[in-house]
């Protein structure tokens, strides 16, 4: 079986080396390249054609979420977001999952071993099935118990979204603004 080809995109050389070391422990995973910013990553994706990309959220020149959006539109590839901003329930993690990221994990620490076990699963995932896995992950995360503050923010965002978008009547083509 061919090894899973992974491209690491992070602005910190130290974090890239830690991720590389964690991924290289598994003989079924091959790190084929590293990039320090999205512009380097774009050329590396074209040249190396990775099976999976690990992507940081906060990077110079372009936000990781903006780059994720471009990846999903132009070259759909399973992406695992790696950042301290993608901890459980964070807005950046939910935004990344909505855009098509396969999963979100926190920045690696010394004690974690199976943090990147999802890389092999992501490689098996065809690009068109990423959306369905994202919907399932969102459903699981959104069905988890929330604090009162998180529930209030979620309902406030829904109310704001419903005021912004017009709804269509079933029997006509005219739009009806919500009251």
CATH superfamily of the largest domain: Response regulator
The main β sheet shows up as: 5 strands, parallel
Topology as a string of helices (H) and strands (E) = EHEHEHEHEHHHEE
The CATH architecture classification of the largest domain is: 3-Layer(aba) Sandwich
The tally of domains stands at 2
Q: How is the largest sheet built, in terms of strand order? A: 2-1-3-4-5
Rg over CA atoms? 18 Å
Average pLDDT works out at 76
Walk me through this protein's architecture.
This protein is an alpha/beta fold and 179 residues long. The protein folds into 2 domains: 4-144, Response regulator (Rossmann fold), CATH 3.40.50; 147-179. It contains 7 helices and 7 strands, in the order E-H-E-H-E-H-E-H-E-H-H-H-E-E. It has helices at 13-24, 38-48, 64-74, 91-99, 118-124, 130-143, 148-164, and strands at 4-9, 29-35, 52-55, 79-82, 103-105, 167-168, 175-176. Strands 2-1-3-4-5 form a 5-stranded parallel sheet, with helices on both faces. A two-stranded antiparallel ribbon has the order 6-7. Helix 4 links the parallel strand 4 and strand 5 (103-105). Helix 3 runs parallel beside helix 4 (91-99). The longest helix has 17 residues, at 148-164. The protein starts with a strand and ends with a strand. Mean pLDDT is 76; it is low at 167-174.
